[in-house]
Amino acid sequence: MTKRTWLLFSAMCIVWGLPYLLIRVSVESVSPVFLVFGRTAIGAVLLLPLAAVRGQISPVLRRWRPLLAYTAVEIAVPWVLLSAAETRISSSLSGLLVAAVPLVGTVMVTLAGRSEGLRRIQLLGLLIGLLGVVAVLGFDLQTITLGAGLEMAVVIVCYAGGPQILARRLADLPSLGVVSCSLGLCALFYLPLAVITAPRSLPPEQALASILVLGVICTAAAFILFFQLVAAIGAIRATVITYVNPAVAVILGVTVLHEHFTAGIGIGFGLILIGSVLANRVRVRGASPPLPRALLAEL
User: How far is the C-alpha of 165 from the C-alpha of 58, rounded, in Å?
Assistant: First the structure.
């Protein structure tokens, strides 16, 4: 890879590992719904004009049914639940649990009949990854409530399912158009709820700055950078960032927010990472694999 490609890759690893920390900071002062509305509204305001200039809005809106499904599964539901979960668990733990998405995605692809079946090494990967999740929950059981655990489980399933909708129903549409329209639809949906749950007084500067960075850097700018990265190295190689993002989330949570680095996080992350790499060696029938979870909004 060229120097520019390495810079893009490094930037994406940081930019999509940063949201967990920013979400944790934001939900201390604003509701999860208000946070998601703010982030998606900022992203939509910045990206929709670019998509409109390129004529990418109309083709996407004509496919409105799968677009709504993708928006709900990839953005609207998981972003709110992730934010809600982070009111009760640490940013590093939430980032680590999201690392299990590739494992669930592998199972979904196989069950949907879009792979040649699981090979032994993939089954081994799923087992190792499962042990990693068990290690996280086993060592850190006292730090996660049942509600937060269920919310994170739904987040993981949604993040794994979103790309399936994208691959089957929206893959032939322009990526920028899909993302910008999804952000706009999500912002419109949450606008009434955001008004109802809006803080009574101006949130602290730290929370406002976190929402702004989430919208501008971690959403709008991140997608533009990601599209450039995919163009440079391809969608398959770009999926590597999904293995690095959780590590960045853990490092930021421990160093910036002074969250505890537990045995469960250390052991669990290693096992989940190894398991995800092994399990994702799926041979997909037909066309090449779709863009990874990152095209999705991961944060």
Answer: 19
